[in-house]
TrEMBL record:
<dbReference type="InterPro" id="IPR036038">
    <property type="entry name" value="Aminotransferase-like"/>
</dbReference>
<keyword id="KW-0032">Aminotransferase</keyword>
<dbReference type="GO" id="GO:0005829">
    <property type="term" value="C:cytosol"/>
</dbReference>
<comment type="pathway">
    <text>Amino-acid biosynthesis; L-leucine biosynthesis; L-leucine from 3-methyl-2-oxobutanoate: step 4/4.</text>
</comment>
<comment type="function">
    <text>Acts on leucine, isoleucine and valine.</text>
</comment>
<dbReference type="InterPro" id="IPR050571">
    <property type="entry name" value="Class-IV_PLP-Dep_Aminotrnsfr"/>
</dbReference>
<dbReference type="InterPro" id="IPR018300">
    <property type="entry name" value="Aminotrans_IV_CS"/>
</dbReference>
<keyword id="KW-0808">Transferase</keyword>
<keyword id="KW-0028">Amino-acid biosynthesis</keyword>
<dbReference type="Pfam" id="PF01063">
    <property type="entry name" value="Aminotran_4"/>
</dbReference>
<comment type="pathway">
    <text>Amino-acid biosynthesis; L-isoleucine biosynthesis; L-isoleucine from 2-oxobutanoate: step 4/4.</text>
</comment>
<comment type="similarity">
    <text>Belongs to the class-IV pyridoxal-phosphate-dependent aminotransferase family.</text>
</comment>
<keyword id="KW-0100">Branched-chain amino acid biosynthesis</keyword>
<dbReference type="InterPro" id="IPR043132">
    <property type="entry name" value="BCAT-like_C"/>
</dbReference>
<dbReference type="InterPro" id="IPR043131">
    <property type="entry name" value="BCAT-like_N"/>
</dbReference>
<keyword id="KW-0663">Pyridoxal phosphate</keyword>
<dbReference type="GO" id="GO:0009098">
    <property type="term" value="P:L-leucine biosynthetic process"/>
</dbReference>
Length: 301
């Protein structure tokens, strides 16, 4: 798909090699913009409304006008997937402040730049879903929520990149960051859940994590399945002694964690509750969501 990939870039579809933006774009110069990562499963875009609400709210928070209405944006995303002839896709929507001068002031920028990229992608290699992940906790702290709200999914991901660099140095695929008080916040690009005595725990928004859409879906599924879910702060100690640990995110979906800072979680294998919740999640995503392709006409209909 590499060679014939279409990208939506400010009003038109262009080939990947022609999808270029100005070095004066404030997204490039200052990380001034917002983005979303969305996923389509078998011709359905999963929780598109929720993703776009987060995108438009993030944009509103930084006073960035997205030049398309909500409904137009939905159709545009579906059209980009159709144009690339995909049914399963990872979708990246980026809205940057647009082209301005070298100064910080967003007043110099013209219209916001909208980019939609769709690709076939899985974040972690498939075997890691079977074995679970080994992760570490790192020194990099989560941005304080009173400085940069985690509800704004902005192009400022340096904090998360520093976490990823620490994960790379430790030779593990993902890492956990704490907030300033030492409570567990989240991974570099995913939320964390613990299971202890059949109760699920995940940090509340005020700890500083992004309140992920997959996190919300997992809370709903877990409650439907009869689990108690508690959104409360916890420490690394609680992670080490949990019965099960897993991460959630649009790209990662649900993935078990089996070792944290050298501590083996339980018996070192993905646990039964994680497996059950993963199964329920995968059943849901296959049928939920906005349909990308019109229904094929029924035979004889
Ligand atoms: N935390 C961070 C920092 C993220 O970038 C993401 C991915 N968007 C998540 C958590 C998971 O959020 P979601 O389930 O909405 O993808």
């Amino acid at each position: 798909m590499e060679d014939d990939q279409w990208i939506f870039l400010s009003g038109e579809f262009v080939r990947k090699e022609d999808a270029k933006i100005s070095v004066y774009d404030h997204g490039f110069l200052y990380g001034d913009g917002v983005f979303e990562g969305i996923r389509a499963y078998d011709g359905n875009i999963y929780r598109l409304d929720e993703h776009l609400v987060r995108l438009y709210e993030s944009a509103k928070s930084i006073m960035l006008d997205i030049p398309y209405d909500f409904e137009v944006m939905k159709e545009l995303i579906a059209e980009t997937i159709r144009k690339n002839d995909l049914r399963d896709a990872y979708v990246r929507v980026v809205v940057s402040r647009g082209v301005g001068n070298l100064g910080l002031d967003p007043k110099s920028c013209g219209t916001a730049q909208v980019v939609v990229i769709v690709e076939e992608l899985a974040l972690f290699p498939e075997e890691l879903y079977e074995t679970g992940l080994e992760i570490v906790s790192v020194a990099t702290r989560r941005n304080r929520p009173d400085v940069l709200s985690p509800k704004v999914k902005s192009l400022n991901y340096l904090n998360n990149i520093l976490v990823k660099i620490e994960a790379n140095l430790a030779n593990v695929p993902e890492a956990l960051m704490m907030n300033n008080e030492g409570y567990v916040a989240e991974g570099s690009g995913d939320n964390i859940f613990l299971v202890k005595d059949k109760v699920l725990y995940t940090p509340p928004g005020y700890v500083g994590a992004l309140e992920g859409i997959t996190r919300e879906a997992i809370i709903e599924i877990a409650e439907e399945e009869g689990y108690k879910v508690k959104e409360e702060p916890f420490t690394r100690h609680d992670v080490y002694v949990a019965d099960e640990v897993f991460l959630t995110g649009t790209a990662a979906e649900v993935i078990a964690v089996v070792k944290v800072d050298g501590r083996v979680i339980n018996d070192g294998l993905p646990g039964p509750e994680t497996e059950h919740i993963t199964k329920c999640f995968r059943n849901k995503v296959a049928t939920d969501g906005m349909q990308i392709y019109a229904q094929e006409a029924e035979i004889g209909g």
